[in-house]
Recover the amino acids of this structure.
């Protein structure tokens, strides 16, 4: 592409981007599609002849933009939100332009050094001591895999990285029942097998029970197995519960186990001085993961892995063939590929540098505080509603609850009532999501189908949360009145009388 053609096309693309962001609310958050309906709209093979850019852009507008799930929509309350902020997107554009591969210092000095600088800024902002250093990866799944790979290597005196695991006693990793599936995947990937991950029971607040952790470690040692690491989660995926990191750290110290803290979602709140309590003890961790692409308004992807044992990460993953041996190696440069399984690395520091400067820490704090306030408001509305109940504490901005019509009061332990409530809430979720105005997701807590509203999108205003709540109430009442059709057309529920609308939320 000639430079001038690129310039004018890029201007057009920027217009598309700005129009999309300004008008994202005109789309339903979830496109109304059946699986497989899109493939057929595209040719079966790649074009032999070049096509004009104008046609590609017009197909983009017709076929692509309307058919994504709109993560940038202010009504996106599912999973954990990921917002691409303006400065983050601008940083991404320049990253794509430079194609700077941050694998070696030599392959892009500024990419490596700006990574060191911005990782240091973030470390300070979340209040961790200077002995934590770190790097960016694509996802928390990769960050945890790397940390646990280092833990495995260190625990085996590095035989895991040389001779493999065949001569090792069975290695055991510990995380709560509520820990993210990425930890189990790490166990699968690192050769421990899924059984190598010991799931530790949680209490009624969904927090890991340290006594159960200690008991599991003792039992494994007695059986001749080798405990090597514990994952504590600050902000679990289902309920955002907080494991007691300080007590877990004490056990890890006594037992000489690597402590990895998964704060992929909630870690961003540590930039708020008043939100530090849930993080007490995390400074004793060996490694910590936080995802800027969850709640720091960074376009996917960016995960921050911090560790006070960078040399162990390096020992686990460093392999320097001749063609990567640069002449700088005798100087104090950091070649980040030596700390990760992959070689090529994106220049993620560029978008972090844009974003941290554009918002400033105070700007980021203000926005996160606003999300916490919105979540607190939603909790208040739910608590005031006799036909809804929260199913978990809300330490951050994700609210877990269900609709529970009055006729169920006191019947929660009856199996039939609890199945009916599950069906009702599943139908409610589907109905609310079909509105196109919001997208909520669900989880199961103590076996109960649980609705989740996760607030963290940069564009979400109070009116969006109010609207979500109005839709939920309306759907809850209508479904209870009309009955829910489940499975093979069986209708359950009764024409229960429900209170009418009680004014604004
Ligand atoms: C607590 C926690 N850890 C890890 C992950 C995985 O994140 P990623 O998609 O960046 O791998 C998630 C995703 O939601 C999460 O909630």
């Amino acid at each position: 592409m000639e430079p001038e053609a690129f310039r004018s096309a890029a201007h057009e693309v920027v217009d598309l981007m700005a129009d999309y962001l300004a008008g994202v609310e005109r789309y339903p958050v979830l496109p109304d599609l059946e699986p497989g309906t899109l493939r057929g709209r595209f040719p079966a093979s790649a074009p032999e002849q070049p096509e004009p850019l104008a046609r590609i852009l017009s197909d983009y507008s017709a076929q692509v933009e309307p058919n994504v799930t709109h993560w940038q929509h202010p009504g996106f309350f599912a999973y954990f939100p990921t917002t691409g902020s303006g400065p983050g997107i601008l940083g991404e554009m320049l990253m794509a332009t430079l194609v700077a591969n941050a694998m070696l210092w030599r392959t892009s000095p500024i990419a490596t050094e700006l990574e060191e600088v911005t990782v240091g800024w973030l470390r300070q902002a979340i209040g961790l001591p200077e002995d934590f250093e770190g790097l960016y990866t694509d996802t928390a799944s990769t960050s945890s895999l790397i940390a646990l790979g280092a833990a495995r290597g260190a625990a085996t005196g590095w035989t895991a990285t040389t001779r493999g695991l065949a001569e090792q006693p069975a290695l055991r990793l510990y995380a709560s029942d509520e820990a993210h599936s990425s930890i189990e995947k790490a166990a699968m990937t690192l050769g421990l097998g899924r059984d190598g991950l010991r799931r530790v029971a949680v209490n009624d607040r969904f927090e890991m029970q340290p006594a159960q952790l200690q008991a599991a470690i003792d039992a494994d040692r007695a059986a001749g197995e080798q405990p090597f690491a514990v994952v504590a989660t600050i902000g679990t995926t289902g309920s955002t519960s907080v494991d007691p990191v300080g007590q877990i750290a004490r056990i890890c110290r006594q037992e000489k186990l690597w402590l990895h803290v998964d704060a992929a979602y909630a870690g961003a709140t540590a930039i708020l001085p008043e939100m530090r309590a849930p993080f007490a003890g995390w400074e004793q961790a060996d490694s910590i993961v936080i995802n800027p692409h969850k709640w720091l308004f960074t376009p996917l992807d960016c995960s921050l892995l911090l560790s006070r044992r960078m040399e162990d990460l390096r020992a686990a993953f460093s392999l320097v063939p001749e063609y990567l041996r640069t002449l700088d190696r005798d100087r104090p440069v950091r070649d980040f590929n030596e700390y990760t399984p992959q070689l090529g690395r994106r220049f993620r520091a560029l978008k972090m540098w844009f974003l941290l400067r554009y918002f400033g820490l105070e700007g980021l704090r203000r926005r996160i505080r606003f999300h916490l306030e919105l979540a607190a408001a939603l909790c208040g509305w739910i608590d005031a509603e006799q036909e809804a109940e929260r199913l978990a504490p809300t330490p951050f901005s994700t609210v877990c609850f269900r609709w529970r019509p009055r006729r169920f009061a006191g019947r929660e332990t009856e199996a039939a009532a609890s199945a009916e409530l599950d069906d009702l809430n599943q139908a409610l979720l589907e109905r609310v999501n079909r509105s196109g105005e919001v997208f909520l997701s669900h989880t199961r807590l103590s076996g109960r189908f649980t609705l989740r509203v996760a607030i963290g999108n940069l564009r979400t205003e109070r009116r969006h949360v109010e609207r979500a709540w109005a839709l939920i109430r309306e759907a809850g009442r209508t479904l209870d009145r009309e009955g829910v059709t489940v499975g093979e057309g069986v209708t359950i529920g009764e024409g229960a009388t429900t209170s009418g609308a009680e004014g604004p939320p």
User: Anything to note?
Assistant: The pocket of pyridoxal-5'-phosphate is lined by residues 80, 139-141, 180, 182, 233, 235-237, 262, 264-265, 291, 303 (CB under 6 Å).
